[in-house]
Design a protein that fits this description.
alpha/beta, Helicase, Ruva Protein, domain 3, Rossmann fold, seven-stranded mixed beta sheet, 48% helix
């Protein structure tokens, strides 16, 4: 059986012949086009990008290092270059509602031009208005109006003075205004003179003074109305003059942008509003100057405000390239980076009119009309960003809002810019696990990301894939200015790629790990002074990389060598088998041998697993344990009960145990204990088992084989040692040179088994046996001994129970 099921050395790994390659070095190879070995993902991605219907955003799934991010970005950029260019966007002041700035779309590349044109209009309006208002003609008109006003005011004052004199009073200016003063012989009376008058005359003068006061009040009212009319007339004159020079400037802009109705509408309003601040302060009546001075004192307590800020333009999104749709890759998709921001208005003295200038665009605005590429994990870890993105895609509009505004007790006052219509295709890149979680838990995700393109971790080996792999290596060397690889160097990379995929029929698609090997092989070639990277450089790079991370494995081997961990690789022991597990440290995995023991005794508890009883095992391991009971019941309990107890344990194991890859090992130990037949300790076992006794494949077969080989080499190779694996794992064998060489020399062995019967014969040297016509197993076979032992234990238990009954009676 050992000879029949032994795996020959040539099947232990996939090797490549440099002479089979059609190049001597990678320098001869052309530039790489497309992506190597991901045909299905490429077809899906290309088709998904062609669908512009709502909800057909794309999730690109796959493990890291497969090139999905770089290729997706490359493909999207290429497709976007052939699509229509997107619009520029500006924000301008909303004259009706200043806290809601207006968003206006402009043809691509024209937003900065329009902003500059508005700046020129503002500048020219000030200068032109200043010139026309300071012209002699306009000043003469103002002076004529002021002359008529002053003449009329003087006439009113003269009339008021004559009326007062007729009543025996004069007029004098006091702090309280114009006041009547009684006269005596044409001169103001003193208080003593006034008090010396008879009471009747004082009463009469007092009544006349009140009449004069009423006349003064009426004259003051008429003067104020006249001044107000003058101010209005002066303002009208100034606006008419200013309008004659400002309106043509705006008219020119309206003609230039007449195809944009929203912009023309805003320019109409801006033309009307721009005249006011364009008019410089004009001198007027003294009371008007005093009012202006008072206004300036008030303004001095506030920050300086630009009177023309309302007419300036915020270039929100500018398409610098006029070729193709935008492609935006946001590496840090926080809420602000995605959706932009608007500065807070925190001081009531600040001018709210400039709020629209504080609006900053986010990635979704820059990608509008094109494509937005995001990493799913980064997006989901950013507060508010994922929910806001879903809302934007559902509503098909991009809003700028303060994040978490709805959760604040006192909302922060901000500007609320008008939303921008959204037409963007979002490509999320992440793992398959994230996709599955979102698909199961988030209904909006299912509706908005209806398309998935999935990258594989490995690719089938064929001529096209091998050529693509070599071309990829050549591209890396050119791009990074590295030494090119020889044909045998490429073969070594291909062999390592098989190891990364754990499959002789597939190459790994984790190109980042392949690139690391190329980098380090180039460094070893450089240290040696070689102009090319040969196969031995690649082999050394792989070995040195593993050695740097193998400290934990070295410590384990030291403990085995010292006897701290009890382990046998020679001799025979009943109920004891060497199992194999894999320790995964992230950057390095290695096989860790573990002694598994079984003990059988009289009882009815069945199979008791110590790790399970103390809750150190996982659910998958427990399932494998229950499978053993099914196998034993099928093979040995058709004519009798399984009336025995057994304990199984992983010796010197202090960490949780999971997985079912040791279930066949546990069964072998249990069968050995039941049959009282020793097992070869130089053979390690891996593989799960089903209830029919069929051996099932497992993972980590290479690490397990190599791990046991290192232990055997450390303790001494005998030529009888080896590992027994499931036959389904034969294509997964990509073993190291040292293991393959040892097998070729007969110092180590690999056996591929398909059933428990095959495995137990290799371990014990005794055939398992077959059930014969009388229901018994082949005499002298291992199963015959197991069957007899189970029957003996059942009879003893029955006799024991009967004895207890008799004793109690």
């Amino acid at each position: 059986m050992k000879h029949r099921l032994a795996v020959p050395p040539q099947e232990l790994r996939r090797t490549w012949d440099p002479s089979a390659l059609d190049f001597a070095t990678t320098a001869e190879l052309p530039e790489l086009e497309g992506l190597v070995g991901q045909e299905q993902a490429v077809r899906a991605l290309e088709f998904g990008l062609s669908i512009r219907s709502p909800g057909y955003n794309i999730y690109v799934a796959g493990p890291s290092g497969t090139g999905k991010t770089s290729y997706t970005s490359q493909l999207v950029r290429g497709r976007a270059a052939a699509e229509p260019v997107a619009s520029d966007w500006i924000y301008v002041h909303n004259f009706e509602r200043p806290d809601e700035p207006l968003a206006i779309a402009l043809p691509a590349g024209t937003a900065p031009t329009f902003a500059q044109e508005m700046e020129e209009v503002i500048h020219d309006a000030q200068r032109a208005t200043g010139r026309v208002l300071s012209s002699r003609e306009h000043q003469n008109q103002r002076e004529e109006l002021m002359r008529r006003v002053r003449k009329h005011a003087e006439s009113m004052m003269e009339e008021l003075e004559r009326a007062a004199e007729d009543q025996g009073f004069g007029l004098t200016q006091t702090e309280r205004g114009l006041m009547p003063v009684p006269l005596l012989n044409g001169q103001p009376m003193s208080e003593e003179q006034y008090d010396a008058l008879p009471p009747e005359q004082r009463r009469e003068r007092s009544e006349r003074a009140q009449e004069i006061q009423r006349a003064i009040a009426e004259a003051t009212r008429r003067t104020w109305e006249m001044e107000r009319a003058v101010r209005a007339e002066l303002k009208k004159m100034d606006r008419q003059a200013a309008s004659q020079v400002v309106s043509p400037m705006i008219t020119l802009l309206k003609e230039r942008y007449k195809a944009i109705p929203r912009l023309v509408e805003w320019l109409n309003r801006a033309a009307h509003e721009l005249i006011g601040p364009s008019i410089p302060d004009q001198s007027g009546p003294e009371d008007m100057e005093e009012a202006a001075a008072a206004d300036m004192r008030i303004m001095a307590s506030r920050r300086q405000i630009d009177p023309f800020v309302r007419f300036r333009v915020n270039v929100f999104v500018h398409r610098r390239s006029k070729n193709g749709a935008p492609t935006v890759i946001e590496p840090n998709p926080t809420y602000a980076n995605l959706f932009g921001k608007a500065e807070y208005v925190t001081n009531q003295n600040e001018d709210p009119d400039d709020g629209f200038l504080q609006i900053k665009a986010g990635a979704i605005h820059r990608a509008n009309g094109g494509y937005l590429i995001l990493q799913a994990a980064d997006l989901l870890s950013s507060p508010y960003a994922w929910e806001a993105l879903k809302r934007a895609l559902i509503m098909r509009e991009a809003r700028i809002e303060a994040p978490g505004q709805e959760n604040r007790i006192m909302p922060v006052e901000t500007v609320r810019p008008q939303p921008i219509p959204l037409d963007v295709k979002v490509i999320l890149i992440g793992s398959s696990q994230i996709y599955q979680a979102l698909y199961a838990m988030d209904e909006a995700f299912r509706k908005q990301f209806k398309f998935k393109a999935e990258f594989d971790v490995a690719m089938a080996v064929n001529e096209l894939a091998v050529q693509g792999y070599a071309t990829f290596i050549s591209q890396v060397c050119r791009r990074e200015k590295l030494r090119h690889l020889t044909a045998d160097g490429v073969c070594r990379v291909l062999e390592h790629s098989h190891r990364l995929s754990d499959d002789q029929t597939k190459l790994s698609a984790r190109f980042n790990e392949v690139v690391e090997v190329i980098y380090e092989a180039n460094a070893w070639a450089s240290r040696e002074g070689s102009d090319l990277v040969r196969g031995d450089h690649v082999a050394r790079a792989i070995a040195e990389k593993a050695a740097r991370s193998s400290l934990s494995e070295q410590h384990l081997l030291e403990m085995i060598q010292r006897g701290t961990i009890l382990f046998d690789v020679a001799g025979q022991v009943v109920g004891q088998v060497n199992g194999l597990t894999v320790m995964d440290l992230g950057d390095y995995s290695f096989g860790s041998p573990s002694r598994i023991t079984a003990r059988v005794f009289m009882g009815q508890k069945g199979i008791l697993h110590i790790e399970r009883e103390i809750e150190m095992s996982g659910q998958i391991h427990d399932k494998g344990l229950f499978t053993l009971t099914g196998f034993l019941g099928d093979r040995f309990a058709q004519d009798k009960p399984l009336a025995f107890s057994a304990s199984i344990a992983f010796e010197q194991t202090y960490v949780p145990v999971d997985g079912d890859s040791a279930s066949s090992t546990e069964l072998y130990a249990l069968l050995s204990a039941l049959a009282d037949v020793p097992i070869e300790q130089g053979i390690a076992v891996t593989g799960s088992v089903n209830q029919r006794g069929e051996i099932q494949p497992i993972g980590g077969v290479n690490e397990k084989v190599e791990g046991f080989f290192r232990v055997c080499r450390l303790l001494g190779l005998t030529g009888r040692q080896g590992v027994m694996i499931p036959k389904q794992n034969l294509p997964n064998l990509v073993l190291s040179d040292e293991v393959v060489d040892a097998v070729a020399a007969g110092q180590f062995h690999i056996w591929a088994v398909g059933t428990i019967e095959e495995g137990i014969e290799i371990l014990t040297g005794i055939p398992a046996g077959q059930r014969e016509a009388d229901g018994r197993y082949t005499p002298g076979s291992l199963f015959e001994r197991v069957d007899r032992r189970i029957e003996q234990l059942a009879r003893r238990l029955y006799a024991w129970n009967r004895g207890e009954e008799n004793q109690s009676s």
